[in-house]
């Protein structure tokens, strides 16, 4: 080896793992796709790269390969993500363009906030149901509040809050309803099977969060398709929506990369969230 040669490495070359999303969507095409073809392309890339089925950590979770400690760690990280859903849905209403759209988006917001607000027999907020899932795993609320978050989780929830509050309504709906909510029913149905077979130590009463989303999100995904289809007639708009879908897939893959890396290499740093994270730390109400 000569003095200027790079050091030998056992890692595979970059070209061995780097590849682009496989899609026939063409950003340089000028004429718009017909609406059915466009939504078909969105569906295809989403089904292929949805993190729950595509990411190695998502696949290990579904395969029942995670230890109790792994499941608890994943839940503590995902808690920060699921705690954002009420703000995201409120952002969709805030950024809607018509009263009709707001009325269409209200039911999913109420689902997230908790139907117990309007119905004595209703359900609590979905974020509360996720906390109860964590408790079923043996994680306390205090532990959730002070759990350091992996850097990719911090970025994901910060970016989702930003898109929901600052970007056009159709962009967040593309990023959320067309990607995650479209896939949730299938994802959580598979996960519930895994809980029943491989994670039987998790009490069934803790799984309500997954049970209701296995039913509800199918409807939310269809709502998203109808909503986005109204904005997807010009090629420029189709490009905006398709790019939002790709960035949404990337965001969740990056979040899982960061969680998987933290699981595999203890000793990395994380951020302990302040009480109204990912909002600005101040001002906040006195407790
Ligand atoms: Fe939800």
In short:
The chain is an all-alpha fold. 63% of the residues lie in helices and 0% in strands.
Percent helix range: 55-70%
* Topology pattern, helix = H, strand = E: HHHHHHHHHHHH
How large, in whole angstroms, is the Cα Rg? 20 Å
Residue runs with pLDDT of under 50 for 5 or more positions: none
Overall structural domain count:
1
What CATH first level would be assigned?
A: Mainly Alpha
Q: Architecture in CATH?
A: Up-down Bundle
Tell me the β content: under 5%
Give the integer mean of the pLDDT values: 91
Write the layout of secondary structure elements.
Layout: H1 35-49, H2 51-54, H3 56-63, H4 68-82, H5 85-94, H6 99-113, H7 126-137, H8 141-146, H9 151-166, H10 169-197, H11 208-229, H12 235-264
The structure holds fe (ii) ion.
């Amino acid at each position: 080896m000569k003095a200027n040669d790079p050091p030998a490495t056992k890692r595979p070359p970059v070209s061995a793992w780097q590849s682009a999303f496989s899609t026939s969507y063409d950003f340089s095409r000028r004429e718009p796709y017909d609406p059915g073809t466009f939504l078909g392309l969105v569906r295809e890339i989403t089904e292929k790269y949805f993190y729950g089925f595509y990411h190695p950590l998502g696949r290990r979770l579904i395969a029942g390969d995670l230890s109790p400690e792994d499941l608890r760690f994943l839940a503590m990280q995902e808690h920060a993500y699921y705690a954002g859903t009420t703000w995201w849905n409120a952002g969709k209403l805030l950024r809607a363009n018509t009263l009709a759209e707001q009325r269409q988006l209200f039911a999913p917001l109420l689902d997230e906030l908790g139907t117990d607000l309007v119905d004595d027999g209703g359900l609590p907020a979905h974020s509360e149901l996720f906390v109860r899932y964590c408790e079923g795993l043996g994680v306390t609320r205090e532990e959730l509040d002070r759990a350091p978050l992996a850097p990719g989780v911090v970025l994901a929830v910060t970016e989702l809050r930003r898109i929901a509050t600052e970007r056009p309504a159709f962009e967040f709906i593309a990023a959320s309803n067309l990607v995650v909510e479209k896939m949730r029913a299938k994802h959580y149905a598979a996960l519930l099977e895994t809980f029943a077979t491989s994670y039987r130590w998790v009490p069934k009463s803790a799984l309500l969060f997954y049970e209701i989303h296995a039913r509800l999100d199918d409807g939310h995904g269809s709502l998203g398709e109808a909503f986005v289809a109204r904005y997807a007639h010009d090629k420029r708009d189709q490009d905006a929506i398709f790019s939002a879908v790709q960035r949404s897939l990337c965001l969740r893959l990056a979040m899982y990369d960061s969680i998987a890396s933290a699981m595999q290499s203890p000793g990395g740093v994380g951020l302990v969230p302040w009480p109204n994270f990912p909002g600005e730390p101040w001002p906040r109400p006195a407790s």
